[in-house]
């Protein structure tokens, strides 16, 4: 099933004339997931023709304004749009009372169910076809990063099923469950007629200093989206509890991640961003600087990056999870 990633904001603490506060919308199979909810997110969603009612999960990394100022507007809109689902909000437990105060302070008549889920290290959400994991990061306040991973599943080849004359639905069901079946005295496993489809992994790391556990957290990501608040100023990044590009690149290279997308930029680079982009993208394979309204589409056999300045296509191998740039 196709996945869509929509970049809603790529600035950090302050929006700029071309970059909004942080926010990323992911259509992950049938669920809509919003990663952080900065100021002006509703307008960004509308520009990209995404309704607030498409959101099933909101994942809040931490309680700094640039990551949460859009929440009151989202709540108010959902209350007036006949939102008939349960809104799941993953948030550090230390910020749950702050979340409740937002609802009370803006006198928002919530007429839908909100399910507050405490962020934690390890497994947080276990849906039918995907899971959400968290890691506690190192920032100036309690902060978490997240990844969403599709569950592996057995995919059967129709031609191979026909070859073995396997048409019985119960037998096919057993093969999909990984069980062995018998046809005309011959034992057949799913490996004879199919393969395990590797699940897509999308990792989101932001507002943290570098530490080694982030490498394992990002391990084998199909798409790694990470803050790069600073460029070639690691001492300043550490002082302000953020990461520099050089540190993010180390996570990418050591984690066997496939594509790195950079976001959450300090406004100090606004005027020189094009030179930074050119330098980084020419010297580093599979690393890109994001802009607001960039989109990524993940299909069965390809990944399309629809970036502001170019479109890039990758061949995707669903058996191994490997990618190969085609243009």
Explain this structure to me?
- The protein is α/β, with parallel strands linked by helices and 327 residues long.
- It folds into two domains: 3-150 and 267-325, Metallo-beta-lactamase, Chain A (4-Layer Sandwich); 154-194, no CATH class.
- It has helices at 41-47, 65-68, 71-80, 96-105, 158-163, 169-176, 190-193, 213-217, 234-239, 245-254, 273-283, and strands at residues 3-9, 23-28, 31-35, 57-59, 87-91, 114-118, 122-126, 130-136, 144-150, 153-156, 181-183, 186-188, 194-197, 201-205, 223-227, 259-263, 287-289, 295-298, 302-306, 311-316, 323-325.
- The chain is globular and about 70 Å long.
- The protein starts with a strand and ends with a strand.
- The relative contact order is 0.13.
- The mean pLDDT is 96.
């Amino acid at each position: 099933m196709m996945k869509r990633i929509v970049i809603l904001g790529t600035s950090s603490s302050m929006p700029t004339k071309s970059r909004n506060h942080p926010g990323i919308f992911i259509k992950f199979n049938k669920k809509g997931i919003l990663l952080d909810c900065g100021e002006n997110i509703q307008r960004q969603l509308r520009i990209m023709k995404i309704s607030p009612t498409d959101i099933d999960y909101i994942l809040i990394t931490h309680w700094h304004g640039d990551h949460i100022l859009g929440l009151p507007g989202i709540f108010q809109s959902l209350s007036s749009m006949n939102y008939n689902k349960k809104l799941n909000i993953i948030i550090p437990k230390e910020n749950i009372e702050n979340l409740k105060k937002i609802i009370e302070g803006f006198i928002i008549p919530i007429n839908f169910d909100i399910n507050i889920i405490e962020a934690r290290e390890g497994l947080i959400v276990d849906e039918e076809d995907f899971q959400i994991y968290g890691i506690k990061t190192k920032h100036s306040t309690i902060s978490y990063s997240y990844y969403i991973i599709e569950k592996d599943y057995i995919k059967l080849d129709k031609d191979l099923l026909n070859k073995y004359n396997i048409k019985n639905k119960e037998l096919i069901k057993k093969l999909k469950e990984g069980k062995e079946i018998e046809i005309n005295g011959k034992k057949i496993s799913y490996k004879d007629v199919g393969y395990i489809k590797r699940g897509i992994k999308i990792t989101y790391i932001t507002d943290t200093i570098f530490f080694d556990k982030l490498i394992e957290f990002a391990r084998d990501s199909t798409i790694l989206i990470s803050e790069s608040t600073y460029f070639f100023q690691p001492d300043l990044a550490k002082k302000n509890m953020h990461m520099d590009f050089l540190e993010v690149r180390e996570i990418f290279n050591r984690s066997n991640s496939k594509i790195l997308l950079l976001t959450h930029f300090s406004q100090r680079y606004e005027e020189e961003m094009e030179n930074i982009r050119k330098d980084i993208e020419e010297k580093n394979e599979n690393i890109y600087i994001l802009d607001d309204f960039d989109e990524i589409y993940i299909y069965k056999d390809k990944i399309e990056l629809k970036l502001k300045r170019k479109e890039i296509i990758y061949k995707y191998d669903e058996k191994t999870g490997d990618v190969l740039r085609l243009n």
